[in-house]
Amino acid sequence: MRERPDYAAYVTERSPRLLRTAYLLCRDWGQAEDLLQTALVKAWRAWRRVGDDPDPYVYRIMVNTHASWMRRRWRGERPTDGLPEESDPADEIGAAADKAVLWAALGRLPHGQRATVVLRYFEDLTEPQVAAILGCSVGTVKSQTSKALAKLRVDPGLLADAPTGRG
To answer: Which fold has domain 1-73?
Structure first.
């Protein structure tokens, strides 16, 4: 097959950030790696059509591929390696636990809402950019983001760890 050096440079430069985005969509590193690999293969096939800024195209592939995987995925129990341990919030383990609580809350959002939050706040994209990636209107991005933030504000996992403000 013909070599595509611009594609190779893109993959080398952007893979770490794309992998993080994939993880935020899936919440599983193994599945995130599979999602990124699948997205990059699809992007490679269409590389001549992608244009000067391939990020929106690749983000859209990842969001759509993840959505199709979610429709087929079994939603039963998920085994874990061990029981969660209690930690001191002042140390790094406590910070990791806080992140885990946030990732879990993010995972409880519906796919569309999760995609808008990930692209808006973790990828720092504008509403028009997110709308273009998701193939929807800016108003839909705004409403999905608003609904997602409202759900996160009342998420029981986040509320359990929130400071009460009482002395």
So the answer is: Rna Polymerase Sigma Factor; Chain: A (1.10.1740)
Q: Which fold has domain 88-167?
A: Arc Repressor Mutant, subunit A (1.10.10)
* Domain residue spans of the chain: 1-73, 88-167
- pTM greater than 0.70 (yes/no): no
The token pair at 94 is 């406590």
The string of DSSP letters for 143-166 reads HHHHHHHHHHHT-HHHHHHS----
Nearest CA-CA partner of 62 in 106, 86, 32, 102: 32
Taking the C-alpha atoms of residue 32 and residue 123, their distance in angstroms, rounded to an integer, is: 16
Phi, psi angles (nearest 5°) of residue 76: -90, -150
Q: Which of 53, 58, 29, 28 is nearest to 41 (CA)?
A: 58
CB 110 within 8 A of CB 75: no
18-68: pLDDT as tens digits? 999 999 998 889 999 999 999 999 999 999 888 888 999 999 999 999 988
- Tell me the longest C-alpha to C-alpha distance in the chain: 68
Q: What is the pLDDT of residues 147-164, one digit of tens each?
A: 999 999 998 887 765 554
